[in-house]
Design brief:
By secondary structure, the chain is α+β, with helices and mostly antiparallel strands. It is 45% helix and 16% strand. Strands 3, 4, 5, 6, 7, 8, 9, 10, 11, 12 and 13 form an 11-stranded antiparallel β-sheet that branches. The protein is globular.
Length: 724
């Protein structure tokens, strides 16, 4: 198996389809068997050098970015932090203008005064973890004895536990593992003054774009550099010119020594979520319903955006960040299904469930607790399949569809709030409208093209009307649709020709006059907004399950807890699903044979960039200045035997949230940054297929070469501790 090792190494477990020797593990109390295997694979560090509650371990140099959307690491004593370019993409995009397009040209601060504060950016350090399983279960029992559980029951439990430890300067977070089988309390410290230091051009950071995404071979220089600032006492503080670079207690050394096949590698980071304990019934729902719908609807939206982005660089800049964010997991949905089918994952999960059923039936107490869990899961997912399909088409087409319709939803929400407050009329200048205009409307108008959004809406509306039963339509929407004889294109044109939310001038003119709140509800787009209500779908599902007397949430929880207990009893190591807490995964550098007679080397070189370069293809158009340097072949300290290595593969186990994670050698030295998985690994959130699931990383020597030879930012090189 490969696993995420939740910093709190607990006793581990494997299923028959997982390897127990590497993976996504917690790292608090290092299991001797697990650590011994790491040592046998080549680890040169002591257990306490990976993590310890007294500080000074490698984990102290690892950070979660923006609450865990990406990972990063500290690489200098002055708070220099490195992560992926695609993690910084939104920040670079926000700083860019047509006149100063940092996305296309790159950004480099040549001194600390030029470093740019990124508003709202945060980095979080893990300071301590304690096992509070028994204490938490006692609190749960006490609350259960006091009365029925409310909607936010676990929030109340967390509040009690966190309250008992609140005499600390750190933020506290209670984390449940294996659906409440174990509980850990995490102590975090979050810094809020984070400044952009350097980022290569997008042609370097995202070379190969969507075409190469989730693929191999890749040639991306996927990195960006920030600096963490603190107050004069080294404590977290809001942005201030008086703040100073963080005096990092621990930072990673950067290795220019390289690596070879079968070398030990490990990754510390903050993977988001996995579902390695998913039942076959839930997996089938994802395979048959969720993934195909997600891919088809989002792909249609992306195709429209791409058409307009190809028309004009200014339009490309408007949509670049949005397109990037959606396209990544659009392709993931497609490739996940390909891998789930290829590896026969449903059969693997069913075999696991047969073993579980036998284990449950072998003991009367287990039969009492878990006897109906598999039957309930099978029945629940079978009964709710149709409503799941309808709801997913609704979500993808209407909730997540056209951007101007999203603005209409915000207008509707604002006006509904005013009516509840008995406010009868509003005009631009009123605080509530100023916020609506400045925070929601004008940024959208500036960052979009009305014709493109109109075309997206036509496609989304067609999906909705075609795939969702009319019984879910709001009556006003049905009447409007009928007035256009069911022609969704004509309905869309009417909305975009007449609504105030689809034109910036109409919007501002309408708001400039004091009007009754009810006037806003008369806008034709509101008939669209009123049909965007998920409550009806959820209530339909609830009734289906209630009639069948099935509590799906309880059944899913019991399934995971039963699996956990079975594996513990059978003496098999196990690890919890990723849940945005710090994890360690270890493995080896190595190649892949993805299909019969196909072999991929584990490294790519600069030669591949020259071979792929296509000046007229945006995804493969390397910036001329970089290309010239690559052709020159001056690798300086960063080459190896006349070559500059770009990306490499390991068999570490990662998932979303691991982007930007430090890939380290046996001594804990930085050799690369994880940024992707290969297409053969796309089943990984559910099932890790040994030999096929790989981590794709950027070689730190390519990063150093870009900083040194292209950016001429020698001061950053000098700040790092580089080992040769």
């Amino acid at each position: 198996m490969k696993k995420l090792f939740t910093i709190a190494l607990v006793s581990l477990m494997t299923f028959s389809y997982l390897r127990a020797d590497e993976g996504m593990w917690l790292v608090k109390m290092l299991d001797k068997q697990f650590y011994s295997h790491m040592k046998s694979k080549g680890l040169k560090l002591k257990a306490g050098e990976l993590y310890n509650n007294e500080r000074g371990a490698l984990s102290d140099a690892i950070i979660a970015i923006d609450g865990g959307s990406c990972s990063g690491s500290i690489i200098s004593a002055e708070g220099l932090m490195i992560t992926n370019h695609h993690c910084a993409y939104g920040d670079i995009h926000a700083l860019s203008t047509p006149e100063k397009n940092y996305l296309e040209d790159g950004f480099w601060a040549m001194n600390k005064e030029q470093e740019v504060n990124i508003k709202g950016k945060t980095v979080t350090f893990l300071r301590k973890i304690i096992d509070v399983t028994e204490e938490t279960k006692a609190v749960i029992d006490s609350l259960d004895n006091a009365g029925p559980r409310g909607l936010f029951f676990m929030n109340k439990v967390s509040g009690i536990l966190e309250g008992r430890y609140k005499g600390t300067p750190y933020e506290l977070f209670l984390s449940s593992l294996w659906r409440g089988s174990k509980y850990y309390l995490y102590f975090y410290e979050t810094y809020k003054d984070v400044r952009l230091v350097g980022a290569p051009p997008v042609s370097v950071g995202a070379f190969g774009g969507e075409t190469d995404n989730w693929g191999w071979p890749q040639h991306k220089g996927d990195f960006a550099i920030y600096r963490v600032y603190a107050d004069k006492d080294g404590k977290p503080a809001d942005y201030s010119a008086d703040n100073v670079p963080l005096n990092a207690g621990r930072y990673l050394k950067v290795s220019a020594k390289g690596y070879k096949k079968d070398d030990f590698s490990m990754i510390l980071g903050y993977p988001g979520t996995t579902n390695r304990y998913m039942s076959s019934f839930e997996m089938k729902e994802k395979f048959d319903i969720l993934n195909p719908i997600s891919y088809s609807v989002r792909r249609a939206k992306l195709d429209v955006w791409e058409k307009y982005m190809e028309m004009d660089p200014a339009i490309r800049l408007k949509y670049a960040d949005k397109y990037f964010g959606i396209s990544n997991y659009t392709d993931y949905a497609k490739w996940e299904n390909i891998c789930l089918e290829r590896y026969k994952v449903e059969d693997v999960l069913k075999e696991r469930e047969r073993e579980l059923a036998q284990w449950i039936a072998a003991d009367s107490e287990r039969s009492r607790k878990y006897g109906n869990v598999l039957e309930d899961l099978e029945k629940a997912y079978r009964l709710k399949a149709e409503i799941t399909r309808h709801r997913e088409f609704f979500r993808e087409s209407m909730v997540r569809g056209a951007e101007y319709i999203g603005l209409a939803q915000r207008v509707n929400g604002t006006m509904s709030s005013l009516k509840r407050k008995k406010i009868d009329s509003v005009k631009l200048g009123d605080k509530v409208l100023e916020e609506l205009v400045n925070v929601n409307a004008m940024p959208l108008f500036r960052g979009s093209v009305a014709d493109a959004d109109r075309e997206v809406f036509k496609k989304m509306l067609n999906f909705y009307v075609k795939e969702v039963p009319s019984s879910f339509f709001w009556v006003g929407f049905s009447e409007m649709l009928a007035s256009f004889d069911g022609n969704t294109d004509k309905l869309a044109d009417y909305i975009y020709d007449n609504s105030i939310v689809t034109d910036s001038t109409r919007f501002k003119n309408f708001l400039s006059v004091r009007r009754p709140v009810d006037d806003y509800f008369n806008d034709p787009v509101m008939k669209i907004v009123e049909t965007i209500r998920i409550r009806d779908y959820n209530q339909t599902e609830d009734k289906i399950l209630d009639d069948a007397k099935i509590n799906l949430s309880a059944a899913r929880g019991n399934y995971v807890r039963a699996m956990y207990e079975m594996e513990i009893e059978k003496g098999r190591l196990n690890y919890p699903d990723a849940n945005s807490t710090m994890r360690l995964t270890y493995g080896e550098v190595g190649p892949i044979e993805p299909a019969d007679a196909v072999y991929y080397h584990y490294q790519t070189t600069s030669k591949g960039i020259e071979e792929k370069n296509k000046p007229k293809d945006y995804e493969f158009a390397m910036k001329p200045g970089v290309l010239d340097l690559l052709k020159k072949g001056d690798w300086g300290r960063w080459g190896e035997k006349g070559k500059l290595y770009i990306n490499f593969m390991t068999d570490n186990d990662i998932t979303g949230g691991n982007s930007g994670s430090a890939v380290m050698n046996s001594k804990g030295e930085l050799i690369g940054l994880a940024f992707d998985g290969n297409r053969e690994s796309m089943s990984g959130d559910i099932y890790f297929q040994e030999g096929y699931c790989k981590t794709v990383a950027v070689d730190i020597r390519y990063v150093l070469w870009v900083i040194d030879k292209y950016a001429n930012a020698q001061h950053l090189i000098d700040e790092m501790t580089i080992v040769y």
